[in-house]
Design a protein that fits this description.
By secondary structure, the protein is α/β, with parallel strands linked by helices. The protein has 4 helices and 6 strands. It has a 6-stranded mixed sheet with strand order 1-2-3-4-6-5. A hairpin with a 4-residue loop joins β5 and β6. It is globular and about 40 Å long.
């Protein structure tokens, strides 16, 4: 799935926006376990905003790799400076969009936030039908 796109699957709208900063990239191999495109570029941010606007900012499910900045703080974590633009952008989406659930996995935990509307996924597997 491409960053910033809206997909319709079984009459549900899914917005996707992957990406996060790898704090361990010094120990990884470029083009094998790490890619310099791990963070969105300005064109991807613009494309995402345009697609959300086309759908009146109303999406059933949001799937991202990392999460809005407010959730990072709720986890008691701090953003890496390299990731602040992305988590800030996701915070903007949180404020602007209407959605049922938001799923992300970057932080390697299984936990719910914001009255179960935002779900950190790590080892658990969720059915969107089970959670709304």
């Amino acid at each position: 799935m491409k960053r910033g796109e809206v997909y319709e699957i079984e009459n549900k709208k899914f917005f996707t926006f992957g990406g996060a900063y790898s704090i361990d990239k010094a120990w990884r191999t470029e083009h094998y376990t790490w890619w310099k495109q791990e963070l969105p570029d300005p064109e991807e941010y613009n494309n995402a905003a345009n697609n959300l606007e086309k759908h009146n900012y109303t999406i059933d499910y949001i799937i991202t790799h990392t999460c809005p900045q407010r959730i990072v703080h709720q986890m008691g974590k701090f953003n890496d400076i390299h990731e602040a633009e992305l988590t800030g952008y996701l915070d903007w989406i949180f404020e602007k969009a209407t959605f049922k659930r938001w799923y992300f996995g970057h932080w390697h935990i299984d936990k719910s936030f914001c009255d179960d509307r935002i779900i950190a996924c790590y080892e658990e597997v969720y059915s969107v039908d089970e959670r709304g």
